[in-house]
Amino acid sequence: MGKQMLRAALDKALINSLITQYWRVSVVDVTASTQTTLVTRAAAGKVKPGDVITANFQRAGRGRMSRTFEAPKNTALLFSFYLKPARKKEDWGWIPLIAGVSVTQSLKKYNASVKWPNDILINEKKVSGLIAEVTGDGVVVGIGINVGMTHDELPVPTATSLAIEGVTDIDRNHLLANVLTEFESIFTAWDQGEDSVGGIYKSLCGTLGTKVQIHYPNDLIEKGVAVDISALGELILDSGTHVQAGDVVHLR
Question: Domain 3-203, what architecture?
Fold first, then answer.
């Protein structure tokens, strides 16, 4: 499987043959945003848990904290899915972390790690990011993975792609199936009350033990060493601070 396979078009029949009936994957060639589409459908009551939308190209992709996400056609794996958790809403902060774990596990053989809360890094550069939005009594999770991008196609210098990292043994269809399978396994156990994902997350988190700089949404900045993850999924600093939201910079 050569590099050209990293840009191969998505195949709905193949994807659905690789996953369980927990999921129902729809493939579109072009959309404004898989996340916006699914959130809109969820708000209108037109989705079921396990519905997935993936696209070859997004005109207006969205990331965390109102950021945009852009990728040339067929160079990224872009998808969103809908969940209806049974656990109480106070626990739902773990859902984006579970998604981050699922992507990291799927890319573990390529030395991927997760940067708190859910950016996935290879060689300290971002290869994947995600967003999770509560919509009524459900959650829509959107994930983007840089697959076939060249250096010139990267959105920022701090990003990377599987192609740049020398990966040639997987395509977007199999990668999507792998992520969904990982997520189904971890989320189902968590939704039934099991909390082992906390330990899994810590084992994959490259932020722990690292000196970090936190950029909070209110523009405040704090430095410290990341020492633990709380039961609520917060990042705990050596100062005792529990970080609930913010951008993390790893300091070396």
Answer: 2-Layer Sandwich (3.30)
